[in-house]
């Protein structure tokens, strides 16, 4: 309370001389009038006269001042004591002051140390930066501008407070400065709710003072500055100094120049008013004011101030958003997966039975699924990706992710999509195929219309069905995705639905065959416009990429790649006695003896059906489960040609078996998680299971390599100049609805799917509609880029580790010239 003794002295200093000078002037007015100015001058120089107050009046006035000051001091003491005891307003508990409620964005880090993005609430996109991460210029500029006596006070700057009261409050000087210290501003950021009136703000101020004093007791000056800069909202979704440095300058706080640091600190006065994006001139003026304050505080020389003030503001602005940057589908997958809750059947619709089963299995077997709700912080609360400032270290390699996205854009954007537009041009049924009726086409578009946000909004607003349909046929301004970027255009909402459906979709994933670390993950063509993830969420028929699974079952049951059979059309019967006769378009060597290897190499449906006839669909389904296929699969004979719907991630995991000596590895997306203090709170290891005996795996490797070296995947060799050892398999489903390619090297396994949003959207012609033309080129472009980047460590000279006795299972078989002649690389179709 010693500071309050200054109150009467301050009042007397400013009020007392003025008050008694006026009384003296009034007292002497009559004297001047009666005796004249001359008589007054005779008595001496009036300008040097001292006015005197009667001693009794002086004593009464001083006593009144002290009584008033004492009353104010007592009232202030009572108010502050009541606040500190929690009787008035809200003061956080000591535990909260020791561990303030700071909300930090969770950051995703790639395997090569790059930031992939963040998870945060819309206005709290904050990355934590330690005090050591701050440049000295930031700290000096902040102290010089906001609180020059920061190192001397204990939370409240009494001198600055009274200066602000007198100069700004009593004398109305706008340049009188503010009374809030950095600690008080931090208290306001951490604990004070927003207020709407001056009265509420006046009541809130004393509470902030009490909190500020307590903050000074529990934290060092460096910690207070660090918390303040980590909490401050610099606009444009950049909360905290690290986000601000990245957003405005593309830098870290430690690498900011003096002028960049001064601009950001200048924004602390009023970020909306000193917004460098909207008001660059006033922001520049404010930055130069910060320089002048640094001169006054002794942090900068006049010469340096003039030099820096002459420089313009140069921004490298990038607005931060969790949907921006690379791997947005991957980031969204992590967000949903890690924040998942324990599945309850009542939370799922009847048609979501499979999803409920998948989620229940993931909850029990996948440590990452529901991690935030399975684990607890020290206070017992579950983790929150949006507020706990976690660092999630992912397996994604930012360079390989970029190559995957580039490969998709190059193939789909430059070749495949233009080819699809050309084929459908002026076709009345476009973008659908000619094998559906006009009614089916209208039903699909009608269903898409009713699933749109526009339809739901109009319906909720009370529009009739007729008015809604009229609205959907009226042209409006909108933005649409193209492979050349988002463009502004004018079209009707119904036309936009047709246009969006005409865009081919894709999914791609690449994974380390031994560790399961996912290196690249692309769930679609544009996350902002098409958010459905086809890597893990979407499932499509896999066509001939199913065949290696059946062939591996045959290898387990004693078949060898060099076993021979008569190449004729087989007839299979289901459990009901119904005949199933597979087609085999483009069949060659009909009626000749062929090997099992040749059947896989040229993707013969007849050889595949022959093997299915010797085996059991139930055995195949059980084997598919060990390959990691979780969705429902009917144990029917036709599954051998790829009728089941399976995701890209499941397929990639399944094909790791062939490159990894029969061992399947589950995709691994995260290696470790750290809390906001840098402590490792979770680690993740690969999950593996043995699917094939080692001998059977070597036989499959031999056959799948032959698919690339002389079979349906041969264009990987001649189209992309890749000489590395690799295996693979193409796949095309009925009517070209889905195009697949699965490929692997000794180190990497990858899968790619391409198709329309609806199965009835596809190429009418086989030339562009097969998997070798739709999906394989993306894999080829990706691997070409990966091998070209020597820093990644992948070499085309790498070889599969195969014992000599298994290197050539068909050593005694001499292939016929017709095995490879006239082969077009066209993948076959199932029934």
Automatic annotation (TrEMBL):
<dbReference type="GO" id="GO:0071555">
    <property type="term" value="P:cell wall organization"/>
</dbReference>
<dbReference type="GO" id="GO:0009002">
    <property type="term" value="F:serine-type D-Ala-D-Ala carboxypeptidase activity"/>
</dbReference>
<keyword id="KW-0645">Protease</keyword>
<dbReference type="Pfam" id="PF00912">
    <property type="entry name" value="Transgly"/>
</dbReference>
<dbReference type="Pfam" id="PF00905">
    <property type="entry name" value="Transpeptidase"/>
</dbReference>
<dbReference type="InterPro" id="IPR001460">
    <property type="entry name" value="PCN-bd_Tpept"/>
</dbReference>
<keyword id="KW-1003">Cell membrane</keyword>
<dbReference type="GO" id="GO:0008658">
    <property type="term" value="F:penicillin binding"/>
</dbReference>
<keyword id="KW-0472">Membrane</keyword>
<dbReference type="GO" id="GO:0005886">
    <property type="term" value="C:plasma membrane"/>
</dbReference>
<keyword id="KW-0573">Peptidoglycan synthesis</keyword>
<protein>
    <submittedName>
        <fullName>Penicillin-binding protein 1A</fullName>
    </submittedName>
</protein>
<keyword id="KW-0133">Cell shape</keyword>
<keyword id="KW-1133">Transmembrane helix</keyword>
<dbReference type="GO" id="GO:0008360">
    <property type="term" value="P:regulation of cell shape"/>
</dbReference>
<keyword id="KW-0812">Transmembrane</keyword>
<feature type="domain" description="Glycosyl transferase family 51">
    <location>
        <begin position="113"/>
        <end position="294"/>
    </location>
</feature>
<comment type="similarity">
    <text>In the N-terminal section; belongs to the glycosyltransferase 51 family.</text>
</comment>
<keyword id="KW-0121">Carboxypeptidase</keyword>
<keyword id="KW-0511">Multifunctional enzyme</keyword>
<keyword id="KW-0328">Glycosyltransferase</keyword>
<dbReference type="InterPro" id="IPR023346">
    <property type="entry name" value="Lysozyme-like_dom_sf"/>
</dbReference>
<keyword id="KW-0808">Transferase</keyword>
<dbReference type="InterPro" id="IPR001264">
    <property type="entry name" value="Glyco_trans_51"/>
</dbReference>
<feature type="transmembrane region" description="Helical">
    <location>
        <begin position="61"/>
        <end position="83"/>
    </location>
</feature>
<dbReference type="InterPro" id="IPR036950">
    <property type="entry name" value="PBP_transglycosylase"/>
</dbReference>
<dbReference type="GO" id="GO:0008955">
    <property type="term" value="F:peptidoglycan glycosyltransferase activity"/>
</dbReference>
<comment type="pathway">
    <text>Cell wall biogenesis; peptidoglycan biosynthesis.</text>
</comment>
<keyword id="KW-0961">Cell wall biogenesis/degradation</keyword>
<dbReference type="InterPro" id="IPR050396">
    <property type="entry name" value="Glycosyltr_51/Transpeptidase"/>
</dbReference>
<dbReference type="InterPro" id="IPR012338">
    <property type="entry name" value="Beta-lactam/transpept-like"/>
</dbReference>
<dbReference type="GO" id="GO:0006508">
    <property type="term" value="P:proteolysis"/>
</dbReference>
<keyword id="KW-0378">Hydrolase</keyword>
<feature type="domain" description="Penicillin-binding protein transpeptidase">
    <location>
        <begin position="507"/>
        <end position="746"/>
    </location>
</feature>
<dbReference type="GO" id="GO:0009252">
    <property type="term" value="P:peptidoglycan biosynthetic process"/>
</dbReference>
<comment type="similarity">
    <text>In the C-terminal section; belongs to the transpeptidase family.</text>
</comment>
<dbReference type="GO" id="GO:0030288">
    <property type="term" value="C:outer membrane-bounded periplasmic space"/>
</dbReference>
């Amino acid at each position: 309370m010693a500071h309050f003794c200054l109150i009467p002295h301050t009042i007397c200093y400013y009020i007392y001389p003025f008050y008694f000078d006026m009384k003296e002037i009034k007292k002497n007015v009559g004297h001047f009038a009666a005796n004249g100015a001359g008589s007054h001058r005779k008595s001496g120089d009036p300008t040097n006269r001292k006015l005197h107050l009667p001693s009794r009046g002086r004593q009464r006035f001083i006593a009144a001042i002290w009584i008033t000051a004492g009353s104010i001091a007592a009232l202030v003491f009572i108010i502050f004591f009541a606040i500190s005891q929690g009787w008035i307003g809200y003061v956080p508990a000591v535990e909260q002051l020791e561990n303030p409620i700071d909300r930090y964005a969770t950051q995703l880090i790639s395997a090569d140390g790059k930031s992939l993005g963040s998870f945060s609430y819309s206005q709290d996109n904050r990355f934590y930066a330690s005090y050591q991460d701050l440049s000295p210029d930031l700290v000096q500029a902040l102290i010089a501008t906001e609180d020059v006596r920061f190192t001397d006070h204990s939370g409240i700057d009494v001198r600055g407070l009274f200066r602000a009261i007198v100069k700004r409050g009593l004398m109305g000087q706008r340049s009188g400065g503010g009374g809030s210290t950095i600690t008080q501003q931090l208290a306001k950021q951490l604990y004070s709710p927003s207020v709407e009136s001056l009265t509420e703000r006046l009541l809130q101020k004393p509470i902030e003072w009490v909190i500020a004093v307590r903050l000074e007791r529990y934290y060092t000056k460096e910690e207070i500055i660090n918390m303040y800069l980590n909490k401050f909202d610099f606009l444009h979704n950049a909360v905290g100094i690290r986000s601000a440095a990245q957003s405005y300058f593309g830098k870290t706080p430690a690498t900011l120049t003096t002028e960049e640091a001064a601009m950001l600190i200048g924004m602390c006065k009023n970020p909306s008013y000193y917004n460098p994006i909207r008001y660059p001139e006033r922001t520049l003026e404010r930055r130069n004011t910060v320089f002048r304050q640094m001169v006054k505080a002794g942090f900068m020389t006049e010469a340096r101030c003039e030099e820096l003030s002459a420089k313009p503001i140069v921004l490298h602005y990038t607005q931060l958003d969790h949907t921006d940057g690379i791997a947005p589908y991957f980031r969204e997958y992590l967000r949903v997966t890690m924040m998942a809750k324990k599945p309850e059947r009542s939370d799922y619709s009847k048609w979501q039975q499979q999803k409920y089963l998948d989620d229940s299995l993931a909850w029990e077997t996948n440590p990452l699924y529901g991690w935030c709700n399975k684990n607890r912080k020290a206070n017992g609360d579950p983790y929150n990706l949006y507020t706990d400032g976690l660092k999630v270290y992912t397996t994604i390699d930012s360079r390989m992710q970029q190559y995957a996205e580039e490969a998709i854009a190059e193939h789909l954007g430059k070749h495949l999509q233009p080819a699809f537009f050309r084929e459908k041009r002026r076709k009345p049924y476009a973008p659908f195929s000619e094998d559906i009726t006009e009614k089916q086409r209208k039903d699909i578009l009608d269903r898409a219309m009713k699933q749109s946000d526009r339809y739901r909004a109009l319906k909720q607003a009370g529009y009739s069905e007729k008015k809604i349909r009229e609205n959907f046929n009226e042209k409006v301004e909108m933005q649409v995705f193209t492979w050349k970027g988002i463009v502004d255009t004018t079209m009707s909402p119904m036309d936009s639905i047709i246009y969006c459906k005409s865009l081919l979709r894709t999914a791609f994933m690449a994974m380390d065959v031994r560790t399961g670390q996912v290196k690249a993950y692309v769930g679609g063509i544009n996350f902002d416009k098409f958010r459905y993830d086809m890597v893990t969420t979407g499932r499509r028929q896999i066509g001939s990429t199913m065949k290696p699974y059946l062939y591996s079952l045959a290898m387990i049951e004693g078949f060898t790649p060099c076993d021979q059979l008569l190449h004729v059309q087989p007839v299979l019967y289901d459990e009901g006695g119904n005949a199933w006769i597979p087609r085999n378009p483009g069949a060659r060597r009909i009626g000749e003896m062929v090997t099992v290897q040749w059947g896989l190499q040229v993707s013969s449906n007849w050889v595949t059906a022959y093997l299915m006839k010797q085996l059991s669909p139930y055995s195949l389904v059980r084997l598919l489960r060990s390959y990691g296929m979780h969705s429902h699969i009917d144990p029917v004979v036709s599954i051998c040609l790829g009728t089941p719907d399976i995701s890209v991630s499941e397929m990639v995991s399944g094909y790791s078996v062939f490159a990894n000596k029969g061992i399947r590895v589950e995709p691994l997306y995260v290696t470790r998680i750290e809390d906001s203090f840098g402590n490792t709170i979770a680690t993740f290891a690969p999950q593996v299971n043995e699917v094939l005996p080692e001998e059977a795996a070597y036989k499959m490797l031999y056959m799948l390599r032959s698919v690339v070296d002389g079979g349906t995947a041969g264009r990987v060799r001649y189209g992309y100049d890749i000489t590395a050892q690799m295996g693979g398999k193409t796949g095309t489903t009925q009517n070209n609805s889905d195009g697949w390619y699965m490929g692997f090297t000794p180190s990497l396994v990858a899968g790619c799917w391409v198709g329309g949003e609806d199965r009835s959207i596809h190429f009418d012609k086989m030339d562009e509609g097969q998997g070798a033309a739709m999906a394989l080129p993306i894999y080829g472009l990706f691997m070409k880029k990966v091998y070209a980047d020597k820093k990644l460590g992948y070499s085309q000279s790498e070889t599969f580790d195969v014992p000599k006795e298994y290197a050539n299972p068909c050593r005694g078989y001499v292939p016929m010239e017709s095995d490879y002649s006239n082969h077009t690389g066209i993948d076959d179709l199932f029934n």
